[in-house]
Design brief:
The complex is a heterodimer of chains A (336) and B (396). Chain A is α/β, with parallel strands linked by helices and 336 residues long. In chain A, 39% of the residues lie in helices and 16% in strands. Chain A folds into two domains: 223 residues, D-Maltodextrin-Binding Protein, domain 2; 96 residues, D-Maltodextrin-Binding Protein, domain 2 (3-Layer(aba) Sandwich). Chain B is an alpha+beta fold and 396 residues long. Chain B has a four-stranded antiparallel β-sheet with strand order 1-2-3-8. The chains are: A alpha/beta (336), B alpha+beta (396).
């Protein structure tokens, strides 16, 4: 592992200089694809099937960016990254955008030379335990051994939570999420902690899914979203508005199914979104129909959510990720 | 050159650019300047770019609060400690597993290397199978094997394997009573110190006497008696100033006592077993490098097989063994960084894992980590070179 990280660092020494000056969008157009950093396999967010095809809500962000630029949502290459490697990979220019269930925090936004381009999933950290442990609340976990992943906000949150509630704990931190699941499954820990969405996603990897349960407490705010390098506003805007396009499309009721019938309609807001009015694509540096391409090829935010998260075996409900107009907090500025 | 000039006729003068000595110095200086310039360029370029990208730089993060827990630490550590302390915890954990691993690998390797040469067919074949198996399986797989194979076989805390109600083994580790020292225990330590000094003095005296008179003196029995007897006497006299804190099941897990976590055991086992297979081959090669005539000569003088190995073969074999052995020690230490895969909190896992991610200062942290491994390796090399010089053939 040491050698891998050192290689990444050496790469960063040299690659950093190559990528700061050049505009990411020009570079992406030049090479013909978006290089997207994703997880090493988190069902529903970024996961690959046996043919090597990636899918998930985080993957859909990458596909949306590709659809906006190339009118081809498949013009994406994926780089699976561990939580340790992800920021260095982005800083060094190895990837163009990081869409890997990454929590937006002050340190990451201000000290790492990165910008968070919005939130595509509002999450919170939770705990999973074996049912036979007889625990119903996280406050009963005094003295527990807790499995988690190194280099994540969960490691810090769990320390804060147990300290503030005056409970003892031991933390066992692994590098890869699969190792965390395997260790929890083999009885190394009483508790498995990560973002709640992650708990539901990883639960399906366990030997006996029904023997485990997620505790009701959510101990932190984990707004997850795509990340880009600081200092390239054009690219930042494009990633940000690719996400907003999907959310706005859901709000206006435009889906990949009905987009054809919505074209040439009367609603000026829909006209602006689909590029029939205004110069929004031009301002972003892409074609006028950028948002229409995203919705046609990837779908709107709600479709993406339903396709990857609200299905078996995950069955995650929209919850706070419902649109603001339907009682949630997903809210996108208008395309105007 | 200078000699030729003084010896030759005075009118023969070499131009400075034709003088090989001047030329060689010139090119060395040029190379040195190039290397220094390249280094300065890389350093300056990195610093510039980090600043332009708005990435925090510097080493001030060492003083800020870490805020995360570490499962096992040799020094006092909690969430309120600084990143600097977390670094120290990781470093000490690396050194601990490297030290234990080197000792176990050396003992195991020597035993198996000698067994490999045994006249007993079964013993030598067993040693061969051991060497060929463990030498040829990647270390990371062996670490996973020991970790997950052992972990799955162990019971949950409630069904711990129980020895005398004081040692408990379960999937969370090996729980042992920890000693609590009371007043007067220092006397026991003093007694132990005196015993060690006495043993050293006695050994020297026995050697001297054997050199002079040829009479042997079995220091080993007296040494054991001294080392155990003297502290025990002090212990009794001071009225047993030692009590034990026994671990007890409290809630989910055992509390109190000392715990050895399964991650340490798995890492230690796999590092020792893997490296021992290489050391065994080095030992075998070293012994075979000593001419068989030496053994025959010793036997002809009536020296038995045991003392022959100990007094004639091994001292000569050591000269061949030590240099490659040092590189095995270095390998073992560096391989300990693979622990990051199984959650043993050593330097790479804690410092280039968690700390790097919380602070995001990759360049500083990776540089410090590389410097640490370099220092550890150079330290081990220096020690082994010293030992090698001590054991080297003394020409008479």
């Amino acid at each position: 592992m040491k050698t891998i990280t050192s290689t990444v660092m050496l790469a960063s020494l040299f690659a950093v200089s190559a990528n700061t000056s050049a505009a990411t969008l020009d570079e992406v157009v030049g090479k013909g694809h978006v290089q997207c950093g994703v997880s090493q396999g988190l069902p529903g967010f970024s996961n690959f099937d046996d043919k090597g095809n990636w899918s998930g809500v985080d993957v859909d962000i990458c596909r949306a960016i590709a659809a906006a630029i190339f009118n081809d949502s498949e013009a994406v290459k994926y780089t699976p990254l561990s939580s340790k490697e992800r920021f260095t990979a982005l800083q060094s220019g190895e990837i163009d955008v990081l869409s890997r269930n990454t929590t937006w925090t002050a340190t990451r936004d201000t000290a790492l030379g990165l910008n968070f381009a919005g939130v595509n999933y509002y999450d919170g950290q939770g705990f999973m335990v074996r049912k036979d442990l007889g625990v119903n609340s996280a406050l009963e976990l005094d003295g527990a051994a807790i499995c988690t992943q190194t280099g994540t906000t969960t490691e810090l949150n769990v320390a804060d939570y147990f300290r503030s509630n005056d409970m003892a704990y031991t933390v066992v931190a692994y590098e890869k999420s699969d190792e965390v699941v395997a260790a929890y499954d083999s009885g190394r820990c009483d508790v498995y902690t990560t973002d709640q969405s992650g708990l539901y996603a990883q639960r399906i990897k366990l030997k006996d899914v029904s023997a485990h349960k997620v505790l009701p407490e959510v101990i932190s705010k984990e707004p997850l979203g795509p990340v880009v390098r600081q200092g390239d506003d054009q690219w930042f805007n494009l990633v940000k508005w690719s996400l907003y396009c999907m959310i706005n499309a859901e709000e206006m009721g435009i889906t990949s199914q009905n987009i054809k019938s919505k074209m040439n309609g009367k609603d000026p807001a829909v006209k602006r979104l689909l590029g029939e009015e205004g110069a929004f694509g031009e301002n972003l540096g892409v074609s006028p129909t950028w948002c229409g391409n995203i919705v046609a090829q990837v779908g709107n935010y709600g479709e993406s959510f339903a396709r990857h998260l609200s299905v078996d075996p995950l069955n995650i409900s929209r919850g706070v990720n419902e649109l603001w107009s339907k009682g949630g907090i997903q809210y996108a500025p208008p395309i105007r | 050159m200078a000699k030729e000039e003084s010896a030759g006729p005075p009118e023969v003068t070499t131009k400075p650019w034709n003088d090989p000595k001047v030329r060689s110095i010139f090119f060395q200086v040029v190379l040195l300047i190039l290397v220094v310039l390249a280094g300065m360029y890389i350093f300056g370029n990195t610093a510039d770019n980090l600043e332009r990208q708005g990435i925090a730089t510097g080493f001030s993060f060492f003083g800020t609060t870490a805020g995360f827990g570490i499962i096992t630490h040799l020094i006092e550590y909690n969430e309120a400690s600084s990143y600097g302390r977390a670094f120290a915890v990781g470093l000490l954990n690396t050194l601990l597993v490297a030290f234990c691993g080197i000792i176990a690998a050396t003992i195991l390797g020597v035993v198996i290397g000698i067994s490999r040469l045994s006249k007993n067919w079964m013993v030598s074949r067993m040693a061969m199978v051991y060497i060929e198996t463990f030498r040829n399986i990647p270390l990371l797989l062996q670490i996973f094997f020991w970790y997950f194979a052992v972990l799955r076989a162990l019971p949950q805390p409630k069904n711990s394997v129980n020895f005398l109600d004081s040692i408990f083994i379960n999937s969370r580790g090996i729980y042992m009573p920890s000693a609590i020292y009371e007043d007067g225990f220092s006397l026991v330590l003093w007694a132990l110190g005196i015993a060690v000094v006495a043993v050293v003095v006695m050994t020297r005296w026995a050697h001297k006497r054997q050199d002079q008179t040829g009479q042997q003196f079995h220091t080993i029995y007296y040494s054991i008696a001294l080392l155990i007897g003297l502290p025990l006497l002090a212990f009794t006299v001071t009225g047993f100033p030692l009590s034990w804190e026994i671990p007890a099941l409290k809630g989910f897990n055992f509390a109190g006592g000392t715990v050895i976590i399964p991650e340490f055991v798995a890492l230690w086992l796999s590092l020792s077993i893997y490296t021992a297979s290489f050391i065994a081959e080095i030992v075998r090669a070293g012994i075979q490098a000593v001419s068989h005539g030496q053994t025959e000569a010793a036997h002809a003088l009536g020296i038995k097989a045991g003392p022959t190995l100990q007094l004639v073969i091994l001292p000569q074999a050591l000269r061949v063994i030590i240099p490659p052995l040092s590189s095995q020690f270095l390998n073992l230490t560096k391989n300990s960084s693979l622990a990051t895969a199984i959650a043993y909190p050593e330097l790479v896992s804690v410092f280039t894992g968690t700390v790097l991610n919380q602070t995001g200062q990759a360049v500083e942290i990776i540089s410090v980590t590389m410097a640490v491994y370099l220092s550890i390796s150079l330290g081990i090399s220096a020690m082994m070179n010293w030992y090698n010089a001590k054991m080297a053939l003394v020409e008479r």
